[in-house]
Design brief:
Layout: E1 7-12, H1 34-37, E2 38-42, E3 47-49, E4 55-60, E5 66-70, E6 77-84, E7 93-100, E8 111-117, E9 126-132, E10 141-144, E11 154-160, E12 164-169, E13 172-178, E14 194-201
Length: 215
Amino acid sequence: MDAMPSSSLVILLLAAVLAVSCPSYEAATSKGSFEDNFSIMWSEDHFTTSKDGQIWYLSLDNDTGCAFQTKQRYRFGWFSMKLKLVGGDSAGVMTAYYMCPENGAGPERDELDFEFLGNRTGEPYLIQTNVYKNGTGGREMRHMLWFDPTEDFHPYSILWNNHQIVFFVDRVPMRVFKNIGKPNNFFSNEKPMYLFSNIWNVDDWATRGGLEKTN
């Protein structure tokens, strides 16, 4: 297989985490450097940063992608990242921005997911949202964007409280997931979660069900 050129995801750290875990649910902006708030999970050499430390570049090549997570877990709040996604031919590339109580796909995990599915040059990105509770997902929903997410930074946000989970793009609500107020197996509201982001090759399913492979 020919060497795959590096693909890059760009994250504006200034808006990397807006989170709170207090009863008022008022968002508090995270301060400090990347190292103060996050830990690199793997492939530290696939991270670079701007001179001021506020913009982080995550890269994917033929060998590996990379990932990071918050050092703290949160239960409820407003969580937001500004992302500039991989440009050009990004088929098979997935950028994930999600919340989970654990580092790994445990059988009883909860998740709140933003997944950005790459495509061939000139074809639009798709955003996929999903919600897991106690290991049960299957609630994928795909969304079309009204802009090119590779040209500039855009905020992607999750509002999570005991009443609802709302996924936002540019502060526009894209999906609302309501708590019906009764014991259920679909609304996550019990487990504090870390925030994660990664970039990786999933060309077995990400683009046209796996028909389009990573170049």
